[in-house]
Amino acid sequence: MNSILQNKVYLFLICLLLGILTSFSLPPYNLFFINFLTLPLLLYILVNYVNKKTISFFVGWVFGFGYFISNLYWITNSLTFDVNFKLIIPFALILIPLFLGIFYGLVTFLCNFFNLKNKISSILLFSVFFGGIEFLRSFIFGGFPWNLVVFSLSNNLPTLQILSYVGTYSLNLLSITIFLLPIILFFKYKTLTKFFIFSLSLILLIINFLYGNFIIKNFEKKKYDYLSSIIRVISPNIPIERFLSNQNAEININELISLSDPHKLKKTIFIYPEGIITSIYFKDLKFFKKIFKENYNINHIVILGISSINQNKIYNSLVTLNNESELLYKYNKNKLVPFGEFLPFENFLKKIGLKKITQGYQSFSADDKREILEINQLKFVPLICYEIIYSGKINPNKNYYDFILNISEDGWFGKTIGPQQHLSHSIFRSIEEGKNVLRSTNNGISAFVNPKGQIIKQISEKGYFDVNKIKRVDKTYFAEHGNKIFFYFVLIYTTFIVILKIRENK
Fold first, then answer.
1. What are the φ/ψ torsions at residue 372 (nearest 5 degrees)?
2. In the chain, what is the straight-line distance between the N-terminal and C-terminal CA atoms, in Å?
3. Rounded CA gap, 263 and 298, in Å?
């Protein structure tokens, strides 16, 4: 084995394999126990077989490439709808994982500076760099916090309840540490020391699990609050190819109305997905006033995603309309998808014929406001598409609200694992914020998620579901303090690392 790992080709192949295997810990597979093997082996290789800083970078880079190419391959599906993009599919399949792998290369590169040994300090050091870089990945260049290591715990709701206190990035840091613990078996500690470390870790894990289970059971005993209106979440499953062909908007509107089955006597809030009526802008909805009046009445409120124009800027918007298609509320998306909704270096790339994946050559503009939407005494925080993937700053003004409202078009993912991964973020946001999540998607998974991350209702086929009662919880500690909690954890880790390093050098 030693001779194999000393060969650089075999070394990188093993790191690639470890990255690929680690990806199966994530949704929809959720084989989280794989991390107890792959992450310790990666650190073991770094400690014992990597001496040069350049080599250390490539160890992490190759691991990251394997990790991302096997869990983000679905991104290239969005390039299949436009003939202009099909030629770059092979390049995107390779280049995106190569770019994201750089972040993990930085982890192993930085670790190499600190003379890693077979000591506990190496576990903490690797964890804090890994967790810190994953945090950085979530914000730099617009941010892409997709498939953090902690998402491997998506199905373990008792373990996740601590999110309401520490948030995603802190739990990600703690999870990395826990997954690395098996490497202690290779450390030259006394058996009693190893037993103590494992026992303490196991006790803490059991306590967290029991606490989470207790929290969930207590929540299940809470009484329902009945809502002033029925909330009807629509899953149209209209093929995305129809939108790209600029089909008559009236056909789409009539199909949506027919599917949602409005009842004249029931107060109902209809929630339709992101960009569900394409080829027209918000200003054009006035031409469909007759259709709205014929099918909706004063008891009905419509929420939908549509493009809007203001001062020659195009926005991906969520709007609230009455039964005469009059505007009651509008939210413009804050976080845009690079290459999907806007082109970085747009002026240059347009000259060589490139455009964003969604329709049209002009990029969407980002807004910087997110105001609470209030309908019939119910309050919503709107999030469009992948805005749901960002931890913290959901409700920047910290005003009271009832629901996180997420509308999305997941047709870009196709029949891949992308929609399941997208849904998993709703679980994390619901627990962090202590809020019910309403999610309406086209060609994805529409869902109702309660404040404990339990998926109460979901639908992936054409249809709808109703929500008329919810359970509420108090504002969470994380909702109040946000991601600064992560920096407290980094400080604690750093303190322990310094103490341990001082002891090791004596």
1. -70, 135
2. 33
3. 11
Q: Is the pLDDT of residue 138 over 60?
A: yes
User: How far is the CA of 13 from the CAs of 17, 58, 67, 350, 503, in angstroms?
Assistant: 6, 11, 13, 39, 36
CA dist 321 and 287 (Å) reads 14
Specify the pLDDT at position 302. Answer: 96
For 225-472, which CATH class? alpha beta
* CA nearest to 15, candidates 79, 58, 69: 58
Distance between CA atoms of residues 454 and 461, nearest Å: 20
Question: Tens digit of pLDDT for each residue in 223-277?
Answer: 999 999 999 999 999 888 776 666 778 888 899 999 999 988 889 999 999 988 8
d(CA 42, CA 108): 9
Q: For the chain, give every domain's residue range.
A: 2-219+486-504, 225-472
Give every strand in the sheet of 268-271, ordered side by side. Answer: 327-332, 313-321, 300-310, 268-271, 225-235, 463-470
Residues 6+ apart with CB under 8 A from 404: 380, 381, 383, 388, 394, 426, 429, 430, 433, 435, 436, 437, 438
Residue 137 has pLDDT above 90, yes or no: yes
Residue with tokens 């341990």: 500
Residue 306 three-state SS = strand
Percentage of residues in the chain having pLDDT higher than 90: 68
Can you say how many angstroms the Cα of residue 121 is from the centroid of all Cα atoms in its chain?
A: 31
* Three-state DSSP class for residue 54: helix
> Do residues 140 and 134 lie in contact, with contact meaning Cβ atoms separated by under 8 Å?
no
